[in-house]
Amino acid sequence: MAEARKFTFRIRSVHCQVTGSSFAIAQGIVTNRHVASGSTSLQLSTWNGNDFDASVRSIDQAPGPDLALLDGGTIPAVLDTADVPTGTPVWAAGYPEGNELTLTSGVVVAYVDGGIYDVPGRVMELTNAIEPGSSGGPLLDGSGRVAGVVFARNTASRHGLAIPVTTLTKYLAATGADTSGICKA
Length: 185
Fold this sequence. Notes:
Thrombin, subunit H; 6-stranded antiparallel beta barrel
């Protein structure tokens, strides 16, 4: 938890009235498109209540992965260099319901077709209990490296869902400068 506190933030879009989670990496701050879309600037908070603003640098447009990159950051998280195998223990860091930072343990159950979740490519299915507000937070492996980006939960199975680190790495290599988007209900 101490490591996650250094790079995981609560995020709020005042314009769209959305809350979520985000995390710092060397290139900026990562969150989900559905958290950042419709805003050019977002309010972020650290685990101990320090607030700051971050500008949207890039929002991946549908049908791309549900990712956005913001300017700023502090101590960056380290990204895994490959996708973790199924059966790997993982921890989802985030601010469920906009409350305090939590770290929820689970296991990677499978890699499934993301098309059924409107995300191209494979997504990770997890046993972690993911709640609204956790979207955009890091999924961490046992060494504290980012293995993925939390984005939703399967309401039928109650399994969490995350975008794998290799998809995040591809997005970061070609983020572009599109900051458009609309608020999601």
